[in-house]
Design a protein that fits this description.
Elements: E1 16-17, E2 36-43, E3 47-48, E4 51-52, E5 59-67, E6 72-82, E7 86-99, E8 104-114, E9 126-135, E10 139-148, E11 159-169, E12 174-184, E13 190-202, E14 205-214, H1 216-221, E15 229-237
Parallel strand pairs: 1-5
Antiparallel strand pairs: 2-5, 2-15, 3-4, 5-6, 6-7, 7-8, 8-9, 9-10, 10-11, 11-12, 12-13, 13-14, 14-15
Length: 238
């Protein structure tokens, strides 16, 4: 995420309709049993690696993915946000899921994020590569490298992020979840972020309640960083 000085009075708001699902934490998944799957969600905020994009308003999110039997998948998302003017967000993603053994899985992915509808949010356009692994759908670890396509950083054009997440089942439908991450941003610096919360799942429905925060460096240098905020998401899988 570009390191943007916090203005005295932020002028960018975010709300409306967004067709998107791209987790702040890239997660290695198990093999898919269907050729096509989709998700539709309502979220209280739009968040990328601990940073709130725009002002907190409800967002509709969605994802459509295509799989083959060899472990390859392609996902596409298209979104719209309105905040005085209209903005869109598009994500294209290709991935390969593999199995190490009965407990461990891995995933390698390439994705491109685009915000074509607004000059400010175009700074977030980036190409990203991720390698991640997961243990029994309980622990995940991912390493990402990305480059912002509309910035010129001759000294260090590539950025990186390291993300870890955990899920601890409490009951058949309830789990505790948590995540920690650190990311390098431009022009120079890095920040840490994390979350803790709970999830509920029943059939195709899932709900998440999380408390997210970023460190003091991010709060001083990155617009949208927060000392702490609750977020809610309700997801329907198809």
């Amino acid at each position: 995420m570009p390191c943007t000085a916090r203005p005295p009075q932020p002028t960018h708001t975010a709300c409306g309709l967004c067709l998107l699902l791209a987790c702040a934490l890239p997660v290695a998944g198990t093999a898919q049993t269907r050729d096509v799957s989709g998700e539709l969600a309502v979220s209280s905020d739009l968040i990328e690696r601990g940073i709130f994009v725009g002002r907190p308003r409800p967002i509709v999110q969605g994802l459509l993915s295509f799989y083959d039997a060899r472990g390859w998948s392609v996902s596409a998302a298209l979104g719209m946000q309105t905040y005085g003017s209209r903005s869109t967000r598009a994500i294209v993603r290709g991935a390969y899921d593999g199995v190490i053994d009965n407990d461990w899985q891995y995933q390698a992915s390439l994705q491109y994020y685009a915000y074509p509808g607004d000059p400010f949010f175009r700074l977030f356009d980036r190409a990203e590569a991720t390698v991640s692994t997961s243990f029994r759908d309980v622990f995940t670890l991912g390493l990402s490298a990305f480059r912002y396509v509309h910035t010129r950083d001759e000294i260090s054009p590539m950025r990186w992020a390291l993300d870890a997440g955990a899920r601890w089942p409490l009951a058949p439908r309830w789990s505790l979840v948590g995540s920690l991450g650190v990311s390098a941003v431009r022009p120079r610096g890095q920040y840490a972020y994390g979350s803790v919360g709970t999830t509920w799942a029943a059939g195709p429905w899932r709900a998440e309640l999380n408390y997210l925060a970023s460190d003091r460096w991010a709060q001083r240098h990155i617009m949208g960083a927060s000392a702490g905020r609750w977020t809610v998401t309700v997801i329907r899988t198809f």
